[in-house]
Fold Lipoprotein.
Amino acid sequence: MRSRLSRSLAIAGLAIAGAACSGQPTGPEFPPPASVVAALPDSAAAAYRHDAVALAVRELRRVGPPAAQPIEVPADLVESLYRSLAAVYAATSLPARDSVVTLYRIHAFGESQQLIVIADDPLPRWADALAHGVLHTGDASIDALVARYGLTLDQRYALTTGLMVTLGATRPTNMAALATRFASIAGVRAAEPNGSGGDGDDIRAEPSSGGWRLEYSVGYGDCPAGCISRHYWTFDVDGAARVTYRGSRGDPAPVGRF
């Protein structure tokens, strides 16, 4: 599994370094990576940046169980995925691009940059501090994690037996891996990513020939219980931000939901 992650990181490096050092196509469909990113409107840039983090976290999960995964998400991996998503956005001459970008507005599903921590009752001192909105709790283990990973105190809720807090991240973080660190601290009853239930539209990424294969999908039919039907569009993006449409498959694309 580690070799798969190494391959992903190597692709990220090639995608960025190669784009910087080699000659780039200049046609409107295949602009150089920097121009691709600069062309994104702010709203789209924020959404695809979130998608890139989600896809990068999924790559880290290939290493093994959460306790074995890296907590910090490599910036080069996020940037490589972000530029690939931006390249598809910019490939306006491809009709399938309009389906995934404009018609269905597909983004990655269900990945959170928040962590839920539930404290035991009676509250330990660190939990009492969090209950009063104090992030620097005086507990060495809690404070070290907060400082190292740039965590924020987003929400706090008093429970009938204990306390629940939601911690946020100021930089890309693998919350499932971080949860294992919190779970080992005295007084923590449970720690887990603040994820989404059900199912929905999604983007998947696979390393492919020095770049990424991006598979966009739209799900429909009882998605709160797990979408019954799904239609897919597949694009290959190389390190120079060249986009190749590989076709679609699956159930018929839904009509009337846009």
About this structure: The helical segments are 2-21, 33-38, 42-60, 75-90, 95-103, 125-131, 140-149, 175-183. Residues 2-110+198-250 form one domain. The chain has two domains: 2-110+198-250, 114-193. The beta strands are 114-119, 151-159, 162-169, 188-193, 202-208, 211-220, 229-237, 243-250.
